[in-house]
Amino acid sequence: MTFVRIKKIKKMNNITFTPQLMNYGSDHPLWLNISIKRHALERVAFSLLKRLQTSMEPELLLAIFRQEISKYLPISDLTFSDKDKCCDSVELAQTEYCFSQRVTVEGNFVGCIKCYFVKKPTAAQVKLLKHLARVLRYPLSNAIKYQQVQTLALTDSLTGLANRNQFEMKYQKLVTGCLKQQSRFSLLILDLDGFKEVNDQFGHQTGDLVLNEFAKLLLFCCREEDEVFRFGGDEFIILLNDARLEAVPDIAKRIRNEMTDCQFLKRFGLSCSIGSASYQKYDEAQQLFGRADEALYRAKGRGKDCLEMSPCSEKN
Fold first, then answer.
1. Spatial CB neighbours of 126, under 8 Å, sequence gap ≥ 6
2. Active site annotation includes 200
3. 238: burial class by Cβ within 10 Å (0-12, 13-18, 19+)?
4. N or C: which end of the chain has fewer CB within 10 A?
5. Tens digit of pLDDT for each residue in 247-300?
6. CA dihedral for 179, 181, 182, 185, sign (positive or negative)
7. How would you class 180 by CB atoms within 10 Å of its CB: exposed for 0-12, middle for 13-18, buried for 19 or more?
């Protein structure tokens, strides 16, 4: 086979490896040359790595991975799971033509990739997929860790609600939408009346259960477009997106009714005081929060278990 004398193909950098050429079966004569095959694999791996470096989102990385490998391999679907039990080993399912690969980084389990082939893959195709899965592992592991850190930074660890760090971002987003669409939104501060006595009498573990139950109640009472935050202790915030002024008393009434119906919260004789303020043009977050806080203070002064709206809200 005279073509194996690579004298005329010394500059392999000039070779373009198209999907048609990169048919990882052994039928193409170029694949008889180990150097060219290795060079082709390096090219594909480098191209994949360059694309993977454009994102730190696990979902997008997997979409890129699927898009890239589908150029060279006849796959119909690709799934990923972070459950170790779904993929104990590398295997070929004869009926589904499914290739399963555990993804690990320095011995630590990252997840399991499953590729579904249109037809039964060749040994060379499986080898390629294993090679490219190794390219994916570090970007995917970093993206998952980044996402976990971001979630911890922006989420209240007890209730799972957004926390104070996330409030400013959500607030600015609402302000932008409010100015563009000429809509309005309101901020509610909620405080559990009698929560300190629960902690003192029943302990902090029971107090945590109460906070979790109250957080679920708020999510149930709010619409999907509203935002619920826990600022700390028994202080919660709601941003009512694109809501009429009349919506504030409605949601306050809904929350109070749900608290009355909740058997768990009823055991402790808890109620809820609410202060609200409506966004005024060019309001900073602190200004809006300050007006709602003053309204909450008045609600506490009135005997608790009620809603107070800031005077600015009433004029809006």
1. 92, 99
2. no
3. buried
4. N
5. 899 999 999 999 999 999 989 999 999 999 999 888 899 999 999 999 999 999
6. negative
7. exposed
Q: What residue segments make up the domains of the chain, in order of their start?
A: 2-154, 164-315
Catalytic residue chosen out of the listed positions 234, 250, 261, 283: 234
* Burial classification of residue 246, based on how many CB atoms lie within 10 Å of its CB (0-12 exposed, 13-18 middle, 19 or more buried): exposed
Helix (H) / strand (E) containing 287: helix 285-301
* Cα separation values, 123 from 24, 25, 26, 127, 196, Å: 9, 8, 10, 6, 66
Q: Are 2 and 11 in contact (CB under 8 A)?
A: no
User: Which tokens sit at 162?
Assistant: 């957004």
Q: What pTM was computed for the model? A: 0.66
48 vs 37, 61, 202, 303, CA distance in Å? 17, 10, 57, 64
What is the tens place of the pLDDT at every residue in 118-138?
888 888 888 888 889 999 999
| Of the options 2.60.40, 3.30.450, 3.10.20, 3.90.25, the CATH number for the domain spanning 2-154 | 3.30.450
Q: How far apart are CA 229 and CA 188, in angstroms?
A: 10
Of residues 196 and 4, the one with the higher pLDDT is 196
3-state secondary structure of 78: strand
> How far, in Å, CA of 8 to CA of 308, rounded?
85
In CATH, the number for domain 164-315 is 3.30.70.270
Between helices 123-154 and 34-52, what is the axis angle to 10°?
20
Angle CA 64–70–76, to nearest 5: 105
DSSP state of 222: S
